[in-house]
Automatic annotation (TrEMBL):
<dbReference type="InterPro" id="IPR006963">
    <property type="entry name" value="Mopterin_OxRdtase_4Fe-4S_dom"/>
</dbReference>
<dbReference type="GO" id="GO:0030151">
    <property type="term" value="F:molybdenum ion binding"/>
</dbReference>
<keyword id="KW-0479">Metal-binding</keyword>
<keyword id="KW-0004">4Fe-4S</keyword>
<protein>
    <submittedName>
        <fullName>Molybdopterin oxidoreductase Fe4S4 region</fullName>
    </submittedName>
</protein>
<dbReference type="GO" id="GO:0030313">
    <property type="term" value="C:cell envelope"/>
</dbReference>
<dbReference type="InterPro" id="IPR027467">
    <property type="entry name" value="MopterinOxRdtase_cofactor_BS"/>
</dbReference>
<dbReference type="GO" id="GO:0051539">
    <property type="term" value="F:4 iron, 4 sulfur cluster binding"/>
</dbReference>
<comment type="similarity">
    <text>Belongs to the prokaryotic molybdopterin-containing oxidoreductase family.</text>
</comment>
<dbReference type="GO" id="GO:0009061">
    <property type="term" value="P:anaerobic respiration"/>
</dbReference>
<dbReference type="GO" id="GO:0009055">
    <property type="term" value="F:electron transfer activity"/>
</dbReference>
<feature type="domain" description="4Fe-4S Mo/W bis-MGD-type">
    <location>
        <begin position="43"/>
        <end position="106"/>
    </location>
</feature>
<dbReference type="InterPro" id="IPR019546">
    <property type="entry name" value="TAT_signal_bac_arc"/>
</dbReference>
<keyword id="KW-0408">Iron</keyword>
<dbReference type="GO" id="GO:0016491">
    <property type="term" value="F:oxidoreductase activity"/>
</dbReference>
<keyword id="KW-0411">Iron-sulfur</keyword>
<dbReference type="InterPro" id="IPR006311">
    <property type="entry name" value="TAT_signal"/>
</dbReference>
């Protein structure tokens, strides 16, 4: 990299300035804390989980809204949750970009349905999606449930449904998901948290 005389003077000036402030005994941490405080002042924080990988780090999502009807809160900041035992306030570089992921106009926020044979995706409501999923599970289980194996032993299982839970499912809901899967007789159960 070629360094010009002007660039060299700028760089050394900044380094000397920072070093000088430090060597004069100034503690800049209150100033940094104040900047952070101003950034999230009046913002509302909600706890969530990073959706990117199976580590499932806890995050705090800060959003701003003036409370007016029909105004969508705007996410202004995301940081690691210091109370979360998994990551204790830290985030990896990928998790640190969550604010842009949340605000991306390309992020899907509604279920999409593509009918058999169709090339088009159609937006449907959450109620419709949940209803369709429940119907499919029931019909598939009823159609393929196995009460006895080839030797006549009682097995009561359903081998035609694969049950996968996501990494944002924590221990307790994960436990309930497995219970529900076993109640249905499913044998193929997995969670992304183990991947
Ligand atoms: S912050 Fe990083 S390590 Fe944590 S869940 Fe997200 S992607 Fe995984």
């Amino acid at each position: 990299m070629e360094v010009t005389r002007r660039g060299f003077l700028k760089l050394t000036g900044v380094s000397l300035g920072t070093g000088l402030i430090g060597s004069l005994g100034f503690d800049l941490s209150p100033a940094y804390a104040r900047v952070r405080e101003l950034k999230i002042a009046k913002a509302k924080a909600v706890k969530s989980i990073c959706p990117y990988c199976s580590v499932s780090c806890g995050v705090l999502i800060y959003s701003l809204t003036d409370g007016a009807m029909n105004v969508k809160p705007r996410v202004i900041h995301v940081e690691g949750d210091p109370d979360d035992p998994v990551n204790r306030g830290t985030l990896c570089p990928k998790g640190a970009t969550l604010r842009d992921f949340i605000n991306s106009p390309q992020r899907l926020t509604k279920p999409l349905y593509r009918a058999p044979g169709s090339t088009e995706w159609k937006e449907i409501t959450w109620e419709e999606a949940i209803e369709r999923i429940a119907r499919r599970i029931k019909d598939t289980r009823d159609r393929t449930f196995i009460e006895r194996d080839a030797e006549g032993r009682v097995v009561n299982r359903c081998e035609s449904i694969f049950w996968l839970t996501g990494c944002t499912i924590e221990n307790e809901p994960g436990y309930l998901m497995v219970k529900l899967g076993r109640l249905l007789g499913l044998v193929a159960l997995e969670t992304q948290a183990r991947v």
